[in-house]
Amino acid sequence: MLVVQVAAAVAGAAVVLTTLASLTYAIIEGPNEGWSAPEIVGGFALAAVALGGLLWWEPRRAEPLIELRFFRSASFSGATLIAVCGFAAFGGFLFLNTVYLQEVRGFTALRAGLYTLPIAAPIALLSPLAGRLVASRGPRLPLMLAGCGLMASVVPLIGLTNDSSTARLLIAYVLFGVGFSMLNAPVTNAAVSGMPAARAGSAAAIASTSRQTGSALGIAVIGSAVTSGLAGTLQTSFAAASHVGWWIIMGCGMVVFIVGVATTGRWAERTAERLNLVEQTV
Fold this sequence. Notes:
Elements: H1 2-33, H2 38-57, H3 74-104, H4 109-115, H5 117-137, H6 140-154, H7 166-181, H8 184-192, H9 200-228, H10 234-241, H11 243-262, H12 266-281
Helix pairs in contact: 1-2, 1-9, 3-8, 3-9, 3-10, 3-11, 5-7, 5-8, 6-7, 6-11, 8-9, 9-11
């Protein structure tokens, strides 16, 4: 019996890996190979088939790798989507700025890292405040602040040029750091709130996995979109091509704000309560 359970768990993990790997490969290589190339179409098709197999297989297992019924809770579903979009914005923001600072502006890795310290500093200083806000006010306010911060940080970068001022960059970095500092605590809180105590660990694990998935997909999608717009070398055309990437990041911030508001109210609490009742009868 144990061997069967282990084999089922390994199979589930392999299907998840296949889904993410094939999807990421197709997104990254699409601009180079052409979106209609057989390997790209095959990558998307394999991801769709693997995802369909996962959705069919997991509910039939006694101990599934992913508890799909968790997604009946609006709070949990919202937290998962917010984690994916928030960390997609984070991965994409760091990726675009790293390429811009080193390839376009010609900075060394050390100097580029020092320039981006204003992203890290607010995250380190303000993340505890986000936890206190969640404890006193619930997850809605921090999620709204996170969405606003992510969107505001992109405004100075939408018209980025090869010689944009340092002040303009630093303002964007500080705003992004402030917004992102408000994200983690409410995501974890929303993911586990309303879940039975025995399921809280699984819910938090799925939320954590969503963060990593978001980072990978954010870099893949934004990198692919920017690559498609390159009209020359990185040094001459990256700044202009990056504009679409900043708009995508703004869209991610908008999703964080809207979903954060929509899935932290009384309706979301009722869906979590219904899930609790279902879990108690299982």
